[in-house]
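Lab notebook, bench 4. Continuing the backlog of folding jobs that were queued last week. Each job is logged with the same field layout so the records can be merged later without manual cleanup. Today's entry covers GNAT superfamily N-acetyltransferase, a 448-residue chain. Filled in by technician R.K.

JOB TYPE: sequence-to-structure
TARGET: GNAT superfamily N-acetyltransferase
LENGTH: 448
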Amino acid sequence: MIPLESLRDSFEGVIPSIIATTDADGMPNISYLSHVHYVDEAHVALSDQFFSKTATNVARNGLATVMVVDGYSGQQHVLDLAFERSETEGETFERMAIHLAILESRMSGIMKLRAVDIYRVEDCRAVPAANPLVAPEPLFLPDLMGKVARLTARMSDCGDPETLLDATLEGLGELFGYRHSMVLVPDGERGGLTTIASRGYDQFGFGAEVPAGRGIIGLAAERRRNVRITDLSRGRRYIEAVRAMAGVEDATPIPLPALDKPLSQIALPLVARGRLVGVLFSESTERFTFRHRDEEALIVIAAHLGTALSFLSEERERGEANGREKADAPADPAGSVPAGRRIAVRFYPRDGSLFVDDDYLIRGVPGRLLLHFLEDYARTGKRDFLNREIRRDRRLQLPDFKDNLETRLILLRRRLEEKAGPITLERADRGRLRLTLAGRPEIEVVEE
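JOB STATUS: finished
OUTPUT FIELD FOLLOWS
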C-alpha cells in the first residue's frame, strides 16, 4: 500500500474527490466529496453532509472507495475504505468544522457538519494516467526547524512587546518568505480582534477589526485552533456550485483580509497559560504557500510569540510595581499649550469611538485612553503620562485589562502614526508616554 503520508497534498481539498459505494443489488453510486481529510497513516475522515444514498450504502456494508487527486502534481490515487466510527467532537471534527464554517459563512446555513466518519484505509494505489502526465517540478520541502531556531532566537532578544511584534513579522518575511502577515489582539470589550501589527500590505491597517468567529482569523480565535487553507479559489468555486444547487441567490462575501485575491491563508491562535492573547495570520497570492511543514513551523513560532508577548507585558508590570519607573509625570508649566490651529476631537462614550477633525481614528479602550490624555492636556497642559497612573486612574473606568494595557497603547500610538494627523503619542521612557499636538484640542463628547 502506498503510504498516505506521501499523498498529503491530495488531502488539501484543492480538487474534489469522488466516492463510490454499492447498494444491496450491487448497483454502484457515485458522489463528489469536497474534501477527504488525512487523520493518520491508516485513517481518513469524510464529512457527513449531503449524500444520503452514500450513507445508506455505507451503513449496509461499511465499505467505500474514494479517489483523491494531488492538487500540485495532478496524480490520482484510489483508496479502499472500511467504516470504523462517526465522531461529533474531537480534534478531527473541529478541524473539519472550521474549514466548513469558512465556506458556510456565505451559504446562509446550508452546509452544516453533522458528523465526521472515520474510515480505515485498506489499500491505496495509484491510478495509471490515460495519457502521460507532464511531470511537475520536483517538490522540495526543506526542513524549517533551522529557520524557526533563528527567528525564535531573535524574538527572545526583544525587550518589549512592540519590538517583539516587529521582529516576528520581519523574520517571517525574511526567513520564510511569508511577506503578508499580521498580528491581531483581543479587543477585550466587543469580543473581536484588532490589528496591532502588520507587514507587506499597502496600508498597515492598525485598528482594523475582525468579529469573533468571522472568517479564518475570527474562527482561529474563537475555536483556538490553527486554520490553514492552501487554495481559496477552489473553495469559492465549490461555494458557487452548492449555491446554485440550493437556489441561494443572496450571500455575504467571505471576509478576506487585505490581499485582493489570496490563495493561501493560515491563522494561528496565540495562547499563553490557557488565555488567548492574539492571532498570527499570514496569506499569499500563491497556492500551497503553507504546507504541513510550514504549519508545524508556525505553530512553534506562534507558541513562542504568545508566551513572549504575555511575559513582556507582565515583566513591565513587575518593573513598574517594583518602583523602577520614574516619578509621576508633572504637568507642563501653565501657558505651554500651543495656540496653533483648532483640533476638533469628537468622542462617543457608547463605544469609545473617537474622531479627529471629523476623521475616524479608533474606538474602544484606545479611544477612551486618548480622550483621557487630551482632557488632561487641555485642562493642565500635561503631556507626559505614566502607565502606572493610567492603571490607577478611576476616571477611565477601564475593564480589567492589566495584561493588555501595553498592547492597547501600542495600537493607539501606531494608529496615530498611520493617520499622520495633528496628534502623536511617543514612548519617552520606560512606562512613560508623551503626547504631542500641533494645535489646540477642542473636545466634544456626544451622548447618544
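OBSERVATION: The CA atoms of residues 104 and 199 lie 29 Å apart.
SIGNED: R.K.
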